Please model this.
Amino acid sequence: METTLLGLDTDELRSVMKAEGVPAYRGKQIAEWLYRSGVRSFDEMSNVPEALRIQLSGKYQLGRSTVLVGQRSKDGTAKLLLELNDGARVETVGLPYPDRMSCCVSTQVGCPIGCVFCATGMGGYTRDLTAGEIVDQVLTVQEDIRFERGEADARKCRIDHVTFMGMGEPLLNYEVTVKAMRLLNKEVGIAVRQLTVSTVGFVPGIHRLAEEEMQCTLAVSLHAPTDDLRRRLIPGMTAWSVAELMKTCREYVQRTRRRITFEYLLLDGVNDGVAEAVELARLLHGLNCHVNLIPCNMVSGLTFRMSPREHIQAFRNVLEDAGIQVTQRMQRGSDIDAACGQLRQRAGDATP
Ligand code: SF4
Model:
């Protein structure tokens, strides 16, 4: 089986070159072609001798995915369904803003957590992604934006924010997620502070991340302030109570001095009442955090409805009156399959 180069850092690529009997500096050149230029073939590596390109292409593959379906919203949001080398499919999203370009990556094919409001959760879990497959998503979104804008120079369409918030629970694929973050930082050139890891509350993973001494951002998808409600909404994460999760979050803030974001998906009549807001405010009292309220995207096959504007405002008022910073996620991509897993669900899953 061919070895995949995407996912190896410069030092590892130097070792590959040494093993091939060529000078180690070729590893640095290949890293630049892979991560900075985002090439899709050895032939594009113009400063690498042709004989070496032929030698490498016989033994190694670059590890780029194929775009199966691309949807673009009127607001510029691009949702791509990618096919990986084994035929598995994952979604990735590009979000261009006036002041930044963001990409939301998947970390697993499917997801074992099974959140009841999520199209990915409905489809089950197939496998973990590799670090190369995660980085490929960022490179592919960059390429898509460049194509859309007709920009010839790859370096002018750079993703500068990445959220690990697509399909899968990143902290269940821990080593790979951390390796992908290091590659995005060191090889692709994205600042660590602009990398956000989103977890649905996997407590051991939060503890490990606190020890990494990485200045990344942690987002915790809480979605419910009580054990009973969380059990109903997030059945795959019942091993830790809300109290244990909040204790872990407080320790994380203390250890890293970084503010946590709490994601809260508002579902009409389920978790969007004033009582839940009061309980949430109590949980977050005195914690360096902010709450991001997310209006739910409609998913076919699920009966949840989006919270009415009055519910969202009342919920927000309770939190703000308690001194908690609140933002409301802009609804983007509402004219395409915006919710996680929707596009893959519609296109049909191909499990390898
Ligand atoms: S919301 Fe996230 S953690 Fe929950 S099932 Fe979907 S992908 Fe998995």
Q: What stands out?
A: The chain has a mean pLDDT of 92.
